[in-house]
Specification:
- The complex is a heterodimer of chains A (about 290) and B (about 325).
- Chain A is mainly alpha-helical.
- Chain A has 2 domains: about 1-60, no CATH class; about 60-290, MetI-like fold (Orthogonal Bundle).
- Chain A has helices spanning about 5-40, 40-45, 60-65, 70-100, 110-120, 125-135, 145-150, 155-165, 170-175, 180-195, 195-210, 215-220, 230-240, 255-290.
- Chain A is globular, with a radius of gyration of 25 Å.
- Chain B has about 325 residues and is mainly alpha-helical.
- Chain B folds into 2 domains: about 5-60, no CATH class; about 85-320, MetI-like fold (Orthogonal Bundle), CATH 1.10.3720.
- Chain B is about 70% helix and about 5% strand.
- In chain B, strands 1-2 form a two-stranded antiparallel ribbon.
- Classes of the chains: A mainly alpha (about 290), B mainly alpha (about 325).
- At the A-B interface, helix 1, helix 4, helix 5, helix 6 and helix 7 of A face helix 2, helix 4, helix 5, helix 6 and helix 8 of B.
Chain lengths: ~290, ~325
């Protein structure tokens, strides 16, 4: 490629680099500030002296959180929720997408099912009817209310159908001629081939489960069953969680409400940061499979 | 010889054990014998759909009664459209609808614009490690929940936060980002744009990588500058994606961002920041005004569903998009 080396070209290049750097910094600095607050001591926080580096470094906010029973509890709920949620989503999505993707097999009712699924999942009846129905079904205060509504997701199913459609039909046909059942074909051929699509869905489902909090707040009225994000919401919005009620407050002279919230924010973000490198690898697959399908 | 009818016949004939089905005898019973498994596989999804999505539709009836909290829907008095008249006769309803549309449309327009401009800028960088670094950092906020991001914003944008320290350092009065009813909607829109532009750009960057590099080389040989190349190659290259995203975004005109606003709002900014979803939650569920909240929720559901259908139709027509 012939390089344009004119002065204006260089200036525009430098301008773009600087704007991009500022945008990138704007996405990182707020989190670094909060992280610094979580490591700073009470007098520094009170004096507003914390910038992008901890002032009066201490770990008491984290020590306090890690011995807090409510926190440990909600962290556990979130972890269990993510694993069960991802598993049930993958199971449901693959099993549902398989029959819907085999266009070459004549299957009366397939289109009707697709239309009903689309209507059911895209038409929102509103919060009140949903809440009252879940109550009638006995889902209130049940762990299942965190899993089932997120298990069936129209976009994941579409991603999976489109991926399954890309698998050569001859592969399945050969297996059927050898006597394989549909279940065999699904679990021995389709699922192993679909690892990229499954990884994409698993990661998005995991993030979705980890981040979801409103279901905990409205459907679970016992705070000890809340996932971490619901716990965090209660803390930042209404401050109804009383940090002082836990034991051993006197051992934590440097812990502050601001510092504890900051530490909690960071701890809640850690799992996302841990899976982020994998997410990055797969979200392009997810997008191109899901939305830009000719 | 292959003609259309043979193709359809082959299509219908392609079954596990081809010998047992002929093209003229594809009856329900045979399909069931051959492909029972396909129907069994749809049962779990069908159960969930019925219980979680279709069963709650009875609740729409609450909109037409004077709801009795103790006796439930069947024990409530039918009052026709009175709830609708009451709800749509109140200025408060129109105010939350207006807030919803203003915030949602602002997010859609500025969000798409920011994503496109950002993608174009990234595209101009010739140093891949820098591209990757910028993308890695700017995409991250999208994956954090609004609880986390909202809590960070409260710290950073608060009256003693770093942003206002800078504002005051410049000799200006501190900005009440979250407590001034004239600024609040803008804070909501811009923070959402900020959280989403990096991820929003991914789809445009995917489209940009599809552009044939030879086009740029040819243009450079012909003496086209950066501006000319962007106008004539890059922008036409992502126009289909822009059209698609614009069509699909129509479906979210009533989604102003429930999570975000619930985390960030307070009673001071209700007049400009209260949207349909937050109002339904606060007044309807917490305040147990079930009838009027059901009316508003039904309004949102019906209009939203219609908009989604229109958006899919538009996307299919102008961007060759189909869902299944």
């Amino acid at each position: 490629m012939i390089e344009d080396r004119s002065l204006t070209y260089r200036i525009v290049d430098i301008f773009i680099w600087i704007v991009l750097a500022l945008l990138a910094l704007s996405c990182v600095l707020p989190f670094i500030h909060v992280l610094s607050v979580s490591f700073s001591n009470s007098s520094a926080i009170a004096a507003d002296a914390v910038g992008l580096w901890p002032v009066g470094f201490q770990l008491e906010n984290y020590q306090y959180i890690l011995q807090n029973r409510d926190f440990i509890n909600s962290f556990g709920v979130s972890i269990v929720r993510v694993f069960l949620g991802v598993f049930s989503t993958l199971l449901l999505v693959t099993v549902t997408a398989y029959p819907l993707s085999l266009d070459r097999i004549y299957m009366p009712g397939r289109t009707v099912f697709k239309v009903l699924m689309l209507v059911g999942l895209l038409f929102g009846v509103g919060l009140i009817p949903t809440f009252l129905s879940y109550r009638n079904l006995g889902l209130l205060n049940s762990f299942l209310v965190l899993i089932l509504p997120l298990a069936i997701n129209i976009f994941y199913i579409i991603i999976m159908i489109n991926f399954f459609r890309g698998i050569p039909y001859e592969l399945a046909e050969a297996a059927w001629l050898d006597g394989a059942s549909h279940w065999n074909v699904l679990y021995r051929i389709y699922i192993p081939i679909s690892k990229p699509a499954m990884a994409t869905i698993a990661l998005f489902a995991a993030v979705g489960h980890w981040n979801s909090w409103f279901d905990g707040i409205i459907y679970l009225n016992q705070a000890d069953r809340w996932p971490l994000q619901s716990f965090l919401y209660a803390l930042v919005s209404t401050r109804q969680i009383n940090w002082q009620s836990a034991t051993g407050v006197r051992d934590f002279m440097e812990a502050t409400p601001e510092g504890l919230s900051a530490a909690l924010i960071f701890v809640a973000a850690v799992p996302i940061l841990l899976v982020y490198p994998f997410l990055q690898r797969y979200f392009i697959t997810g997008l191109t499979l899901g939305s830009v399908k000719e | 010889m292959i003609d259309n009818s043979t193709v359809t016949a082959v299509k219908r004939e392609a079954v596990p054990v081809p010998s047992t089905l002929t093209k003229n005898k594809t009856s329900w019973r045979m399909v069931w014998q051959q492909h029972k498994a396909l129907y069994i596989m749809l049962i779990p999804a069908a159960i969930l759909l019925v219980l979680l999505n279709f069963y709650p539709m009875w609740g729409v009836g609450i909109a037409f009664v004077k709801y009795n909290l103790v006796k439930g829907l069947s024990g409530s008095e039918f009052i026709g459209l009175q709830n609708f008249q009451m709800v749509f006769g109140r200025p408060e309803t129109w105010s939350i609808i207006r807030n919803t549309v203003v915030i949602a449309v602002g997010k859609i327009i500025l969000g798409q614009l920011a994503a496109v401009i950002f993608a174009l800028m990234i595209h101009e960088v010739r140093f891949p490690p820098y591209k990757r670094l910028v993308q890695t950092l700017t995409t991250l906020p999208y994956f954090l929940s609004w609880i986390i991001v909202g809590a960070v914003m409260v710290v950073v944008l608060g009256s003693n936060g770093p942003v206002n320290n800078i504002v005051e350092g410049l000799g200006l009065r501190p900005i009440r980002f979250l407590a001034d009813r004239n600024i609040f909607p803008l804070t909501i829109i811009l923070s959402d744009v900020w959280k989403g532009f990096g991820f929003g750009a991914v789809i445009y960057l995917a489209a940009l990588t599809q552009i044939n590099p030879e086009l740029y080389e040819a243009a450079a040989v012909d003496g086209a500058g950066r501006g000319a190349r962007m106008r004539n190659i890059t922008i036409p290259g992502i126009t289909p994606t822009i059209v698609l995203m614009a069509a699909l975004s129509l479906g979210s005109v009533l989604n102003a961002g429930f999570d975000q606003i619930l985390v960030l709002y307070n009673s001071v900014v209700y007049s400009t920041g209260d949207i349909i979803d937050t109002w339904v939650y606060r007044v309807g569920l917490l305040g147990t005004s079930y009838e009027i909240a059901t009316v508003v929720g039904l309004f949102k559901g019906a209009v939203g569903f219609t908009l989604i259908l229109i958006s899919y139709w538009l996307a299919g027509k102008y961007a060759n998009y189909r869902i299944f």
